[in-house]
Amino acid sequence: MPSNSTKVLLLITLVGGMLVSVSSNSWLGAWIGLEINLMSFIPLMSNVKNMYNTEASLSYFIVQVLASATLLFMVVMKTLTEDLFSFDSNPYAPVVISTPLLLKSGAAPFHWWFPGVMEGLSWENCALLMTVQKAAPLMLMSYLIEINAFTLTIILMSTIVGSIGGLNQTSMRKILTYSSINHTGWMLIALTTSENMWMMYFIIYSILALTVVSAIKLSGVSFINQTMMTNSDTTTIKFMMYTSLLSLGGLPPFLGFLPKWIVIQAMITNNLAPLATIVVVTSLITLYYYLKISYSSFMILSAEPKWNLKSHKNKSISTSWTLMLSSISLTGLVACTMITNIN
Ligand SMILES: *[C@@H]1O[C@H](CO)[C@@H](O)[C@H](O)[C@H]1NC(C)=O
Q: Does ligand 1 have an atom closer than 6 angstroms to the CB of 250?
């Protein structure tokens, strides 16, 4: 693992690369930004002491390089062939340029690398991969996206894979991965309406993902069966973990419902009611198993092994950080509706 100052440097160039990419006014500049971003993330992921990290960083590297090389090739094609035969009037041009971007952000038919990579990462890197690493490719998608059969297929596959894929998972990282694939689909829906709606969705999703990840990290749980054995002072942490999970799943009193609500409304005003119906049904499947996980560990099985009683170190800083984040996720919807109703 790089030392602390190296990590800070790499985090700065990671965010810098993302900013170069989203603010660039040419495709070549966007590609450069994506590349800087990738080259800063790889060393952050790898850890000589842990072979899962190494495997994850290697497969992430290969997939992302495949995507970048394809993107560069398509962009050069677009530039070189513009006066021979118009690439821009070709209906497949947006499709071929957006495919590598979808591969980078892990939207559904291109999601195969995502669960395996996430399984080998530390929680901090999982959070980065679910949030910051998606910003640039999705922002670039906004230049290409329009409502057509290709986009609708990607959206439907993302939401369906996201909800069915998580059904039988026992690993928290896998569940969060499928949730992230699903939210990528929803973000693409938001993107077809407006960039601002996407931005709102993305920011709220990032806050919620961060909340869930910090609560899970605090409770030291990697698999669902570990949540069954609680101990008295992790009950609060478990409460925060499951309320934020339900918030991520879009259950109404929590903040996660707000972006879902706005996107459903947008779909209906854009005459996409059939799409809205399908994605709402897939989100019901999700809520079913989120509720099932939380219900069983809240109510039925709460065995408390004696050896757990004094095992917890002082974690007050990360506890208060998680508490702050999860109170945003608990009360955010109420606060937002209150703010918009005060006139
Ligand atoms: C997918 O996103 C929707 C909208 O936020 C949510 O209702 C649903 O529970 C999510 N599914 C997963 C697997 O996270």
A: yes
Mean pLDDT check: name the lowest of 45-59, 183-197, 203-217: 45-59
Ligand 1, atom 2, lies closest to the CA of: 183
* CA 114/CA 60 separation, integer angstroms: 8
Return the domain boundaries, the chain: 1-98+113-130, 145-299+313-343
> Is residue 105 within 6 Å of ligand 1 at its C-beta?
no
Question: Which amino acid is present at 281?
Answer: V
pLDDT digits (tens, 9 = 90+) for 14-55: 999 999 999 998 889 999 999 999 999 999 888 777 788 888
**Mean pLDDT value of segment 300-325:** 68
Q: How far is residue 186's CA from residue 194's CA, in Å, rounded to a whole number? A: 13
Ligand 1 atom having least distance to the Cα of 175: 13
Please tell me if the CB atom of residue 158 comes closer than 6 angstroms to any atom of ligand 1: no
Q: Which atom of ligand 1 is nearest to the CA of 257?
A: 5
Whole-number average pLDDT of the chain? 86
The C-alpha atoms of residue 201 and residue 256 are separated, in whole angstroms, by 9
Is residue 166 lining ligand 1, measured as CB closer than 6 Å?
Answer: yes
For residues 301 and 227, give the distance between their C-alpha atoms in angstroms, rounded to a whole number: 9
pLDDT digits (tens, 9 = 90+) for 266-293: 999 999 999 999 999 999 999 988 888 8
> 238 in ligand 1 pocket by Cβ < 6 Å?
no
* Atom number of ligand 1 nearest to Cα 251: 7
For ligand 1, is residue 260 a contact (CB within 6 Å)?
Answer: yes
Rounded to two decimals, the pTM is 0.91
Could you identify the residue written with the tokens 């059939």? Answer: 274
Q: Which two tokens stand for residue 135?
A: 């910003």
CA distance 238 to 35: 38
Is 247 a pocket residue for ligand 1 (Cβ < 6 Å)? no
Q: How far apart are CA 96 and CA 149, in angstroms?
A: 14
